[in-house]
Amino acid sequence: MKKLTLSVLAVLFTATVAFAQLEKVDNVTPNEDQVPQSRMDQHEAFLDGEYRFPAKPRNMWALGIEGGYAQVSGDVNPEFGYNVGASLRKALGYATSLRLRYDYQRPEGEDYSVSQMNTSNSTQRVGTTDLAGGLHFDNFEATIHQATLELVLNLNNINFHREQNRWNLDLSLGGGGILYDTETTLMAAPGNTNAALAAANGTVFNYNDPRDTRRGGLEGDYVFTPVATAAAGLNYRASDRLAIGLEPRYTRTWVDWIDTEAYDDPTDSFADNDFSSDKDQLFTTNAKLEFALGNKDKRVQPLWWENPLNFAYPHLTDEYSFDPDYLFDDADGDGVIDRLDKEPNSPCTFVDGSGVVIDSDKDGVADCVDACPFTPAAQRADIDENGCTEIIDKHCCDEVEELRKEFEDHRTHPIGNPDPCANMAYPSVNFTKGSKRLVAAENAKIQSIASMLAGNPSCRVVIEGFATGSRKVGQQMAYARAQAVANALVDTYGISRDRIIVRYSSVDGFGDVVNVRSARPGEYGSANPAAPFPGGGN
């Protein structure tokens, strides 16, 4: 047995030296070949930034080979026995895995205190005796085949402070069955007498008589019994393909005949006249090698060695914190950085706070190129490529014409104009029909306007409120809406009142909108104009 132990240790040392190279994790995100087709939609959504969690990749199986010490804890003193086994393990996730294992065990035991058989109950013991009076020395040698399925819990593969783990601690619980066949001998040489055996109590004998196969008093084949197992393993990852470990294991049985003894002799001083209350239990301590199986181009390492945070941390450090282009790039120049821009290729800079072009009348033509940005809903089906209809051209009033000129001036203003405020394009703010209250959906636009004004302290804006309906009611609604936008800029974002010019008008066909534009040089007005009729400001 010493030779076997030394051989196992030699194999472990040789394998560790030969394979002790752990590659650096380069590709923290699995490639398409490593993700099963059933989870490909999630994988692609994660890469596109549309889903926060990566798909679980295919991972390798692990083949384990082990060997070590085995013993039976029962009614006979155990001696050194051995165990060899093999296992196949597959991860269910990063914390759990299933392991199917087989063990071949040869435990032994021997007690040099003299015992005496109870021949009247011999069918409950090892069998009848070849010695007069039944004097013998308890001993056994068992052959055990054990098969179990275990659930393994990994305790430390999620590591917040390093890329890979070298060590792993796991616990396992399982169940299965054993087939056992136990041999025993009466340990008596020819010519021995009962008196000689009795006088030899406590003396070590070295008899070599052939063993009689006796299993709980029954002659026959292997005996089957169900078992439950519990184990703890300490594992070291020597390389991407090899791990070594040490694992003590306990096997719970519900039989008492594995060591051939179920109760003490009921005669003289050798017995307590009772059956043994304890069942025979199995204990092993194994050194093991575990090999990762599979193509590394199509499978990642077994998940109990993988750190799932490898998906997240590189994105936080490499892209977000240290990439200024990622943080501040604005490819379309609309004032909204790319990582927050819902429309990163806007055709013009007249956008809302999310980077989407403004289309105040929802006619499909962006305000920056719409010659008629407030087309009535009933006429939108007849607009041309400029966003206008013949009806608007024929019935447009002075206010509409003035507004169109302002938009045209803004659109055609030379880029090289020395006045930076003239090129500022502010989003329009929409209101619910019949309401003068700002809705939450428009807060991003207010924030965008405030941000542009805060970044350009010399610029002023004209806030023009519009509303449809009767002249009097429409003017009052337009006034209240313009004041609501002005108040939000002042009260919420601290924009000075003297940088705001408030105007309002009731014009049929303009819709429920407040337009915000740059104030022209020399253009001044009140930030708090009078309400169109008494009490109208309430």
Question: Would you give an account of this structure?
Answer:
With 538 residues, the chain is α+β, with helices and mostly antiparallel strands. Helix content is 19%, strand content 28%. The protein has nine helices and 13 strands. The strands form two sheets. Strands 1-2-3-4-5-7-8-9 form an eight-stranded antiparallel barrel. Strand 11, helix 9 and strand 12 form a beta-alpha-beta unit.
The overall average pLDDT, rounded, is 75
Low-confidence stretches: 12-20, 118-133, 187-220, 264-275, 392-397
Helix coverage percent: 10-25%
Secondary-structure element pattern, one letter each: HHEEEEEHEEEEHHHHEHEHEE
Radius of gyration: 44 Å
Estimate what percentage of residues fall within beta strands: 25-35%
Distance between the ends: 99 Å
Biggest β-sheet description: 8 strands, antiparallel, barrel
The gross shape turns out to be: rod-shaped
Number of strands: 13
The strands making up the biggest β-sheet line up spatially as 1-2-3-4-5-7-8-9
Structural class: alpha+beta
The number of helical runs is 9
Short description:
This protein has helices spanning 2-19, 40-47, 194-199, 313-321, 324-328, 390-395, 398-412, 443-455, 471-491; strands at 61-73, 78-91, 96-116, 135-154, 167-184, 212-213, 223-237, 242-252, 281-293, 429-430, 461-467, 500-506, 513-518.
Labels describing this entry:
about 550 residues; rod-shaped; four-stranded mixed sheet; eight-stranded antiparallel β-barrel; about 30% strand; about 20% helix; 13 strands; alpha+beta
